[in-house]
Amino acid sequence: MRPLKSLTLEARVDFLATTFRVLEDARAVDQLTYPLHDTLLSGFALMFFQHPSLLQFQRAMKQKRRRCNLESIFGVHDVPSDTQMREILDGVDPEVLRALLPQLWEKVRRAGGGHRFTTTLPSGQQQGTYYTVALDGSEYFHSTTIQCPHCLRQPDPKGRVHYSHLVVGATLVRVGSHQVLPLDAEEVRNPTAESQPQDCELTAGKRLIARLRREHPQMALMVIGDDLYSHVPFVEQLQHLRLHYVLVAKPASHPSLMAAVAAAEVQGISQQGQWDEGSSARRRMYTYRIVRQVPLAMESLVRVTYVEVWERSVGGELLYHNSWITDLDVTAENVAVVAQIGRTRWKIENEQFNVQKNHGYELSHNYGHGQHTWSMVFYLLNLLAYVTHVIVEVGDRLYQRCRAQESRRELWAALRTALNMLLVESWSHLLRVYLEEATASP
Question: Does residue 37 register a pLDDT over 60?
């Protein structure tokens, strides 16, 4: 089967190259040895191949052979060094990279890949199919010595100041699937070193959901998140933006809500029940309670539905317990799905942030911090590489054939080795070499 052309790496590189080629370069004419277009694509290639030494190897190959794989695969004619890349990109507006995320999603959707990230609510007033978007914050830089004017600052008990950079991610997740797709990201960033109050995850989350609705006005979105977001101002904004939600609500941080839930119990107006899943020793028993139209906070006009679920083993051992607030019409027929939607929140941490930090993307690798925008530019190049990997896995048939033969880790190790040692004509050529269907120049 031929690859879906719109979902191959070649198509993604063409898309990035077209975007980068028209960017305004603010550097002086005598500083344009390495074009901005080539430098951005070099940074993307470094992240895509998860290869911190890529530029060094490719510069050596170009010097020896007058061509290199960055040129044949990514269209890079002038390969910068790591230091040159950092200096050139420290000042690029991160928005030009972030704005590519909704465009990449639209290409996936138009190619028919959107259904991979939908969840169906089987009943209730909001019955239908939704894109569930998990919100969560993640720190991607931390130091007690290196800083820039936009760092977040937090003193510890010993008087040391900790400097950090965070993002809030908005990532498509799906019940029953480990595959996720980042849809957007918002930097938690101080405008200046003297900014008070400092920016924070919640404020960044508000900016993020407003942009989500603005850039995806027709998407049936359902926002899921942790207890940080389940408070009146954020929920009011979700309602204003026509965004459904399932948000963790911890009893300790919601005393007024829990008092209303307890009162509903006394009045006998809460709904309780149970369901089972699995069979034999793997059987799981779930009990739940639903309390509708309870105030989220004291004297608040915001009314929510409170859902609480307990999961136990056959022997009665408590395996899981959580509670959420939602605007959905939760019933005995759909409470299991609503609970599953709430539980998928962990996927943004496990399947995205953890993978970016610990499984090849080198998010914590010291690529430098910069003094202007490099930190966020680096993060977005990393995120674009992650998204491109998901797209290639979904739509590149040649890549799928390679993956069928090896684990992901072993495949990419082999591709990096080939990239260092052999000169190929294209990404497809590299894959065919791996499949032993073509040869390459040693």
Answer: yes
Q: What is the pTM of this model?
A: 0.93
Helices (H), 220-301: 232-240, 255-267
Per-residue burial over 326-335, b = 16 or more CB atoms within 10 Å of its CB, e = otherwise: bbbebbeebb
Residue 127 token pair: 């019955």
Secondary structure, 3-state, 318-384: EEEEEEEEECCCCCCCCHHHHHHHHHCCHHHHHHHHHHHHHCCCCCCCCCCCCCCCHHHHHHHHHHH
Do 226 and 345 form a contact (C-beta atoms < 8 A)? yes
CB of 263 closer than 8 Å to CB of 235: no
Retrieve residue 93's tokens: 């507006």
Biggest CA–CA distance in the chain, Å, is: 82
User: What's the rounded Cα separation, in Å, for the pair 228 and 201?
Assistant: 9
Separation between Cα atoms, residue 130 and residue 114, nearest integer Å: 11
Q: What is the pLDDT of residues 134-164, one digit of tens each?
A: 999 999 888 899 888 889 999 999 989 999 9
- pLDDT, position 365: 62
Q: Distance between CA 400 and CA 7 in Å, rounded?
A: 12
Q: Which of 307, 294, 300 is nearest to 259 (CA)?
A: 294
CB-count exposure of residue 164 (10 Å: 0-12, 13-18, 19+): middle
Q: Which long-range contacts (CB under 8 A, 24 or more apart) does 158-165 make?
A: 164/139, 165/139, 165/140, 165/141, 165/189, 165/375, 165/376, 165/379
CB 25: neighbour CB atoms within 10 A? Answer: 14
Q: What pairing do the DSSP bridges indicate for beta strands 221-225 and 244-248?
A: parallel
